[in-house]
Amino acid sequence: EKEKTMSTHFKRILYGGDYNPNQWTKDIWQEDMRIFKDAHINTATINVFSWAKIQPSEHEYNFDELDEIVDMLSKENYDIVFATSTAALPGWMVRKYPEVMFTDYEGRQHKFGGRHNACPNSFVFKHYARELAYKLAERYADNPHVTCWHVSNEYGNECFCENCQKAFRNFLSEKFDGNIELLNNRYGTTFWSQEYNEFDEIPVPAETITTHNPSLRLDWERFRNKSIVDFAEFQVDLIKEICPSAVVIHDFPGGGLDKHVDYSKVSKKLDIAAYNNYPVWGGQKEPI
Question: pLDDT tens digit string along 121-161?
């Protein structure tokens, strides 16, 4: 099979932004192209939040509309920044596998809707995210107009569900070589009778009467960061597996940056670290 390749450099300065034509009727698309040409736009980031459109049910994929969008942009000689669309879950997945939704600090599992709503340690979520990204890369990687791949969207979600609790306990067991007494000693858990007899007693540092052990909280931040880094790297590895020369980017959140995520580690496997700069109308009211 012919290896799919992609240019690793840009032939021009990319000028454009997110483009979501599947959110309006097709009769507007050609008008979009006319207006974009007047504005000298040459780049479109597509498919950032289109999972439900592409995969309307668990065993069904439909690329017809996405094919039309890609064909239209290709004929107009656009550079396409192709997103993996894994940053917002489809409704069928949440209904059938509710554990994919994230749980907040107060222990409330959130309902379907919005974006950035997945548990980063959900095996079900990662399975379907991998399957989706693989199908997209396999289908579109050999299009010369696909200039780079855009994985997920604005990493930084935090989850306190059972998936994360199990993964956190495994993280701690590995860190302390399975020695719970060593953990107790390092954490100083005799304070407030917080000793653990085994790793399965360790909670996630969610809502409690006062505050959790500060060493536990610190290790939780390390674990949370690792969860995000692992998820980011698995998507990059997947794209590179299909298209070794792919240019892979991620858009880090502008405005209120997530101070609990080490973006330098998240960026390690990226070719480009992008940044979303949100205008703050009326002035910034508090420091970022």
Answer: 999 999 999 999 989 999 998 899 999 999 888 887 788 99
44, 73 Cβ separation under 8 angstroms: yes
Backbone dihedral angles phi then psi of residue 44, each to the nearest 5 degrees: -140, 130
- Phi/psi for 242 (5° steps) reads -80, -40
Tell me how far apart the alpha carbons of residues 156 and 50 are, in angstroms, rounded to a whole number. 20
109, with CB counted inside 10 A (0-12, 13-18, 19+), is: middle
Q: What span, in angstroms and rounded, lies between the C-alpha atoms of 176 and 174?
A: 6
For 43, residues 6+ apart whose C-beta sits below 8 A from its C-beta are 14, 15, 16, 17, 78, 79, 80, 81, 147
Give the predicted TM-score (pTM) of the model. Answer: 0.85
Residue with tokens 């780079």: 148
